[in-house]
Amino acid sequence: MLIVGVLLATVLLRFMLIVIAVYYLLPRGTRCPTCQTEMLPIRHPLLDRLCPVLQRRWCLECGWNGVVRREPPAPHERAPRRRPSRPLSRV
User: Fold this and answer.
1) Contact status, residue 57 vs residue 66, Cβ threshold 8 Å
2) 20-49, pLDDT tens digit by residue?
3) Contact yes or no for 70/51 (Cβ under 8 A)
4) How far, in Å, CA of 32 to CA of 40, rounded?
5) By C-alpha distance, which of 7, 64, 15 is closest to 38?
6) How buried is residue 69: exposed, middle or buried, by Cβ count under 10 Å (0-12/13-18/19+)?
7) Distance between CA 88 and CA 91 in Å, rounded?
8) How far apart are CA 84 and CA 45, in angstroms?
9) What is the pTM of this model?
10) C-alpha angle with apex 35: 34 to 40, nearest 5 degrees?
């Protein structure tokens, strides 16, 4: 039983290493890896639910399509910062 557990653990570790390597090999962002123009997102319900960090995109210029990593939201798209509750200076 111990041997089965060890073999299963090594197979799972190998699978995780492959998944991590493939994730970092995927292009990142909204620019086409071939011609560097803006790509259009393609909605894929199954991929969006199973793996929200990945997104399918299509380039209108060169026709490239594939899976890319999503970029983190820009600072202006994040939640606004709260103002301090007390005044900074007295007049």
Assistant:
1) yes
2) 999 899 888 888 888 888 999 888 788 888
3) no
4) 10
5) 64
6) middle
7) 10
8) 41
9) 0.61
10) 90
